[in-house]
Amino acid sequence: MSDIKYIDLFAGAGGLSEGFIRQGYKPVAHVEYDKAACFTLKTRVAFHYLVKSGREDIYYSYLKGEISREKLYACVPRELLDTVINAEIGKENLNIFKAIDNTLKGEKVDLIIGGPPCQAYSIVGRAPLKHKKNDERTKLYIQYGRFLKKYQPKLFIFENVPGILSAAKGMYFKNLQKYYKQLGYQVKARLLNSYDYGVIQNRKRIIIIGWQKDFEFLYPEIQSAKNKYFRDEIFSDLPAIEPGESKRVQKYTANTNDYLSQTFIRNGVDFVTQHITRPHNKKDLSIYKLAIERLEKGKQLKNNQIPDSMRTQKNTTDFLDRFKVVDKEPHTLIAHIAKDGHHFIHPDKKQLRSISVREAARIQSFPDGYYFEGIKENQPRTAAFRQIGNAVPPLMAERIADKIKEFWHE
Length: 410
Known about the structure:
About 35% of the residues lie in helices and about 10% in strands. By secondary structure, the protein is of the alpha/beta class. It has a domain at about 5-220 and about 390-410: 3-Layer(aba) Sandwich (Rossmann fold), CATH 3.40.50. The strands form two sheets. The chain has a seven-stranded mixed sheet, with helices on both faces. Strand 4 (about 110-115), helix 7 and strand 5 form a beta-alpha-beta unit. Helix 2 packs antiparallel against helix 3. It starts with a strand and ends with a helix.
């Protein structure tokens, strides 16, 4: 499958791309505006290159903090690192096109994947969304289309939130379909839940697939995973830690389990990185304890049920699920986790904290060796939470990639 070359637009931390790489597709460019996410993408490029070269020990030395990020990148050909393009789609398209063309060296792009920022289409959140008029983000599908027009891939994958179908009474999606049809593509959209594909999270996303009219393709039926797994499959082997703990490397406290092995979240390495947490104040911890105790009785704590003496904010009507414990079937991981951990409280009352970076990554099905970077080395926590919250689960992406490649075989 390495002859199927793709571009990842709005690549984020690379969750969507990771699924396609696992299925043998070859990335020729990742385009992302966030600088920290670009470092994450480069570090993952380094991982894949070093594993193929039989030098993964260099990568693991980096995870342990034994070598710097600069020294890690020095072990990778510059042309591979340059496939990560730190630029803003829309304002810098000409520069992006030039960088991609330098990578392609005259070869053809077969596939474009990506999910433009979805906040402008969201219909749920921590508080009622106040969308600004003429939000440029609602028209990023046009920028995506400019890459389709230039590179004319046989197929594209466009990931977004369910609200893209209904926002502005469906106008945006209708315009998207019309525009892509003018570019020569048939377009279909379906609602998929990542929980059906092995991700331990109820995360519903719209997956739009478009294909050139002369490409024999049907929107694939992606069958649900046979086995269902739950929260404890994710948390059971990680050491208990305290709020604000930031050790770079820790040992597992238990052997792997079926879920962690089958999904390659654990891959035989005997240490885990980024099992780090944010600090909390005493008032928040008292609410966390109350929320855990309530869940132990079978129900989540509602914001208006917090006693006035414990309350940290006045608003009791907006976003009743402000404080929420990660349940047996984890709820949707949202980008707000970068701001606070109230919506993702760890269920163990003895630890009394919000979930760690590594626990959040596991909920999204990222493997433990996937390292989330910050702009500055060794300062990745907030940037990591932001990248993870915005990501496409690699396990879901892999199932999509697996079904799509069948059409190249036929």
